[in-house]
Amino acid sequence: MSKVGVIRDIDKGARGEVIRVEVTEYKGNHYLNLRVWYTDKDGELKPTQKGIAITPDLYEDLKDAVISAEDWIKD
């Protein structure tokens, strides 16, 4: 059984949008998916095309880049 699902929804603070961090599976491959979702008129969250989906082997590079950005922001 594979592990897929929502890790966390991060409130963007605007118009009911969230950044959803999730692990997905597509055609037998796993992806780390970071995507903007919006709240429709019925109150349901729906995905937008804004986001990225990366394979697990790119995770370390992405994590290192985010940590570098954090260091830059703090300086």
Write a structural description.
The structure is a single chain. This protein is α+β, with helices and mostly antiparallel strands. The chain has a single domain (5-74), classed as Transcriptional Co-activator pc4, Chain A, CATH 2.30.31. 21% of the residues lie in helices and 49% in strands. It is built from one helix and four strands. It has one helix at 59-74, and strands at 5-11, 18-26, 29-39, 45-54. A four-stranded antiparallel β-sheet has the order 1-2-3-4, with no helix packed on it. β2 and β3 form a beta hairpin.
Features:
flat, 49% strand, alpha+beta, Transcriptional Co-activator pc4, Chain A, 75 residues
Morphology:
flat
How far the N terminus sits from the C terminus, by CA atoms, comes to 44 Å
By CATH's scheme, which homologous superfamily applies? Transcriptional Coactivator Pc4, Chain A
The total strand number stands at 4
Largest sheet: number of strands, sense, barrel closure = 4 strands, antiparallel
Tally of separate helices: 1
Cα Rg: 14 Å
Proportion in β-strands: over 45%
Which helices and strands appear, and what pairs or packs with what?
Blueprint: E1 5-11, E2 18-26, E3 29-39, E4 45-54, H1 59-74
Antiparallel strand pairs: 1-2, 2-3, 3-4
Q: Can you describe this structure in just a few lines?
A:
The chain has 1 helix and 4 strands.
